[in-house]
């Protein structure tokens, strides 16, 4: 699938977002908030990242993370609410897919977690539900208790 053309008001930037941009886009688009420490560590592990900008402001993003060989995960697909419904999520995914198809080794396993109906978007790019063969599982690390 080739990248979709964007409205002239939008530009694609193949770069990891800044810490502030990342944290803002996640929370403003309805994804879970991330602490500064978690975001700093996570962004450093980006293998590939896409941003879509409108008048110099990043309004959409997505990342590919993983071990660089066997396992990868598409994550952080986020579009600010004022820019949703314009195909920006599809464009972010198209750029990520272009990278997957040209840079990842044969036999690499690419996964993602689809919130709500987002699985419909990802299905357009060849992702399939894994159940019942496998079922995704997750956990979130909570606040740490101060030690005495």
What does this structure look like?
The protein has 148 residues and is an alpha+beta fold. It has a single domain (10-123), classed as Aminopeptidase, CATH 3.40.630. 27% of the residues lie in helices and 24% in strands. It contains four helices and five strands, in the order βααβββαβα. It has a five-stranded mixed β-sheet with strand order 1-2-3-4-5. It is globular and about 55 Å long. It starts with 9 loop residues before the first strand and ends in a 25-residue tail after the last helix. The mean pLDDT is 93.
Percent of residues in beta strands? 15-25%
Q: What's the SSE pattern?
A: EHHEEEHEH
CA radius of gyration is 16 Å
Principal-axis shape equals globular
Quick synopsis:
The chain is of the alpha+beta class. 27% of the residues lie in helices and 24% in strands. The mean pLDDT is 93.
Features:
single chain, 148 residues, alpha+beta, Aminopeptidase, five-stranded mixed beta sheet, 5 strands
